Structures are given as C-alpha cells and as structure tokens.
Amino acid sequence: MKLLIVEDEKDLSQSIVKYLGSEKFICEVAYDFHTAMEKIHVNDYSCIILDINLPNGNGLDILKELKLLAKDEGVLIISARDSLDDKIRGLNLGGDDYLAKPFHLAELAARVLAIIRRKSFGGFNQISIGELVLNLNEKTLKNDVEEIPLTRKEYELLLYMFSNKNKMITKEAIVEHLWGDHTDMADNFDFIYSHVKNLRKKLINAGCPDYIKAVYGMGYKFVIS
Amino acid sequence: MKLFTKYNRINLYVMALVFCISGLIYYLIISGVLIQELDEALLRYKNRTEVFIKANQVIPEFNDFEEIQVSALKVTHASDKSIKTVRMYDTDEQVTEDFRQLSFTVKLNAQFYLLTVSKPIEGTKLLINVIAITTIVLLLVVILSSFLVNQSILKKLWRPFYLTLNELNGFKLDSHSLPKLPETEIDEFSLMNKSVYELIQSADNDYRALKEFTENASHELQTPLAIIRAKLDLIIQEENLSDGNSSALKIIYSSVQRLTKLNRSLLLLAKIDNGQFNATERIDMKERLLEKVEQFHELWTAKKLVNSLDISASFLKGNSELIDILLNNLLSNASSHNVSGGALYISLLNNRLIVSNSGSEVALDRTRLFSRFYKENLHSQHNGLGLSIIKQICDRSGITIQYNHLGVTHSFMLSWE
Lengths: 225, 417
What we know:
The structure holds 2 protein chains of 2 kinds.
Chain A: E1 2-6, H1 10-20, E2 26-30, H2 33-42, E3 47-51, E4 53-54, E5 57-58, H3 59-68, E6 74-79, H4 84-92, E7 97-100, H5 105-120, E8 126-129, E9 132-135, E10 140-142, E11 147-148, H6 152-163, E12 168-170, H7 171-179, H8 190-205, E13 212-215, E14 219-222
Parallel strand pairs in A: 1-2, 1-3, 3-6, 6-7
Antiparallel strand pairs in A: 4-5, 8-9, 9-10, 10-11, 12-14, 13-14
Helix pairs in contact in A: 2-3, 6-8
Chain B: H1 3-56, E1 69-75, E2 82-90, E3 95-108, E4 111-120, H2 124-169, H3 187-235, H4 243-273, E5 281-284, H5 285-302, E6 306-311, E7 315-318, H6 320-336, E8 343-349, E9 352-358, H7 386-397, E10 399-406, E11 409-416
Parallel strand pairs in B: 6-8
Antiparallel strand pairs in B: 1-4, 2-3, 3-4, 5-7, 8-9, 9-11, 10-11
C-alpha cells in the first residue's frame, strides 16, 4: 500500500515516514504544493496525509483536485491552524479525518489505518491478530471459541494498540486517544495502569499469549511477531 | 447626582443670594432717598419758620400741623442745627414710630428757642414689604424659568452627550463592534466624541493585536511542538535505551505534553474570544452529563472516589463543542483536585448544575479564581487555565457560575435560564 505525506516541515514528514513505513506501507513525501499535485496525478495512494498550509498553495486545493480527478483516496488532514472553519471545509471537500498539530504519531497511525480500512473494505471489516479477531462493526473481540467481553474503553484501547503493534504507545497518547484533548488529567495516569491490567488479564484468561508489555514505565507495547 | 440637579442647586443658591443682596441694596437706596426727601421737607419747614419769626417776631403756634410734631423750648444758648432719626410716640396713630427730627435754634428778643420738628418716616415698612415680595416673586420666576429652560433647551443641548454616554455604557472591548457616537453640531461634543472614538479605536486595535499575538504565537508553537513530539515518539521506540536516558526521556515527554496542553488551552481561549464557537443548539444536558460520567467512571474508581449523582432532565441552549469542553473541565477538576477516597457530588436539576468535590480546608481565592494562570499550588502540574476556560465558556453561553466552599467541600454551581 502506498501513502503520500504532504507536509512542508521536512523534520515532521520524515518522522511520519519513519513511524508509518514498514514492509506493508511505502511512503512518499511531497514538501510543497506543486510536487503534491504532480504526485496525485501520476499515482494512486491508499491514503494521503495532507497539511493545509503549504508553500505555493493551499492543501484544500489538492482536495478539490482529487475530487475533480474522481479519485477515491482517503485523506487525513493535518493542520497547525486548528480552526473549526478549516476542519469543516476540509471535511466538506472530501477529507476523511482531521488531526490538529501537534499529534502523537500513534494517533496518526491509528487514524490512517482507520481510513484505509473504511475505504478498502467498504466499512465491513475485521482485523485478526494471532488467534484474536476484532470485529470492527460489532466492536467485539473473539478468539477461536468464544467472545471475549470488553468494555467500550478496553475495546478502543485494544484497537489503538493493534493499530500501533510493536510500537511503544505512551500513557499520554492513550489518555488523549481515549478521553480526548481537553481532559486535564495532569499527573494522574494510575487509572491507565489499571485499565491496561484489566485488558491484559482478559486476553490471558482467553488463552492468548501476553501481548502487552510495559516499557520504561512510560507506556505499553503490543508485541506480536 | 445628575448634572442638571447639581447645576440647578448651585443656580438656586446663587440666585437666592443675589436677590437677597439686591433687595438689601434696593432697600438702602430707596430708604436713603426717602429720608433725604424728608430732610429737605424739614429744612424747607425751618426756612419757613425762620421767615415767619423774622416777619412776626413771635414763635408760631404749632397746633395744626398734620403728622408733624413741633415743639419750642427756651434754651440759654444757640446750638447748631441737627438732624437725626428718633423713636417717638405718635399721638395720632397711637404707636411708637420712627421720626426724622430736625432741631434748630432761633433767637427772638435776646432769647434762644430750640425748635424741634419731627416728621414720621412713613412707608419704610411698606417699602420693606414691597421689596421682599418683589424679591421672592422674581426669585420664583427665575427658578421656574431656569427649570423650564433646563427641561427643554439644556436637555436638548446635552442630548449628544447623553447619547454618547449611553453608547459607551454598553460597550465592551471584545464585542467586535465599535460604538456609534452621535453626530453633533456642538464643537465641544464633537471633539469629545472624536477623542473618545479615537481612544476606543486604539484600545480596540491594541486588544485585537494582543489577541492575535496570543493566537499567532500559539499557532507558531504548534509546528515545532509537533516536530519535537514526533521525534520523541520515534526515539522511545528504540529497544536499548539506558535507564538514565529513558528516565530523562520520560521527563522530556511529559514536559512536552504539558507544553502542548498549555498551548492548546491558550488557543482554545483565543478561539472562544474570537467567537469561533457561535453556532448554538438545544443540548440535552442530562444525556451529555451521563456520557461524561461514564467516561470518568474508571478514573474515579482508580482514585477511590465516592461519587453520588442526582441527575434529572435539563436543557441548555449553547454551543455543543464548548459545553463538551465545559463538562470535561468541570469533571476533570473535581477529579484531579480531589483527595484519595474523597467525595464527588454531581447534581443537575432545573437548569442548575452543581459539581462538588472534597479538597483542602482552605477556600480558593475568589477574586483570582477565574483569572488565567491562577494556581493554588505553584508547583502544580496544572496550567491554571482550566477555570478560566470554564468561566469563558459560561460567559459565552449565558451561564452564571458561582464558587462555594464549606468545610472541605469545594463546589461550583452553574445556572442558566
């Protein structure tokens, strides 16, 4: 699958490439408006990560061009000018999701994967990892034999970890993903710990290996080969 | 005190004083003139007497003089004529009265006679009455006329001033529109309006510039923050970090997180200021609150908080996103400033939401509570913007917020129409 990252800040776009890039994803980068226009004409992408403020042009015009070309690429808009107008206009012009800078790379990855899943499986899909099957429509988790009951938050946490498998996700990123931007939990991350502990217990009880590892006291990693 | 009242009062005092003084002066002048007339009459009488004595060589009989009392006394020597005012008994009118008295000596057959001629000073009383009445009447006329003038002319003249005052009264710097000051032909008022307008305009520009500065600064910080965060996200993926490095990274990570939160809060405040959340809708507060309670439930369990809820149906007209942030902030505050094993109480009833939590025995500083960067504890991990965001959203949404403290319970009460 191919991703296009349209972002003029080279440091940021390279970090995104490094985080998302794997044998599964091939990432291309465009640092300005013209390059991005050229690339969308030539290639097809599974998802485009699009910054709105670009040298020589506006990211929203790229959205319009995609519409004109009748391309069905998923688009995740990223913007430093976190304004409601930008968000609404971007989404109206065919953007699939909107993420304000600064963001956690884990969050970006989760959003990109969600877009790709929506686009490529027509909204009907499931993810299997090892012996587990996560049904995204029913929001349920099953192993070979039975359903493993999860709370809403546990389900979201598991999906977040699936989307960032073998990557360390910090507690801060988890809080922001599960509770949103404007929740001021300050220094209190204990509840994340109990949350993860519960999820881990449920998975182990269902007969899975211990996938979730704590790393450096900073966060967790869903390890699967 | 109103300008007109003050003006009228001063005017009244001054007028009363002026009229009293002028009445006194009238009285003195007129009575002076009268006495002079009397004196002249008395002198004419003296001349006539002297002429009579010279011709007839006898002291004239003094019976039949109307009002005038005359007496003749034999004296040993001549004295100068004198004229003075005396009090005497008026036999005709049977009252004691002021008389003007002229005394002079005449010589008849080597004998000196002292002749005294007295004439009542008539009309003084009348004069005083007339003057007093005139003064009072004139005073009343002046007061009445000045009252009428104030009512019509002054009010009309000062109209532009009051219009300006009215406009300024309802003006707020963050209202996005400058006041409309009235056109006027009066130089002073138009100068005043011009100055006021320029003042407001420059204040408005400064205010806007300041706001834009905050917003731009926050926006400019987003990109470097995004880069730092992305790089950190990559570094922490490294498998073999030393203990020292990983603990340093942990601190860097949480500091960047705080910086991001601070920046986000500042941006949010700027956006609320700029009216970017103006779209309103009818919000089911019960539904929203229950949603939030569910979200926070795990956090409360982790902190071992005893929560009691008393939530019934209530609706609010406001911006959906802002109300979401408001509830988030209220519940976050009540949770994170709570003590382990403390209590948390949420009540929603008849357009009134109360959120209380256990905390310290010391009340928050009411005067600074909602100001930006207010912190009870300087080393707190909180950025001190949470309550000012709450306040700002309440102001925007027509919600009144009140802080109460009793024992160890801190509570915020929100009420709306």
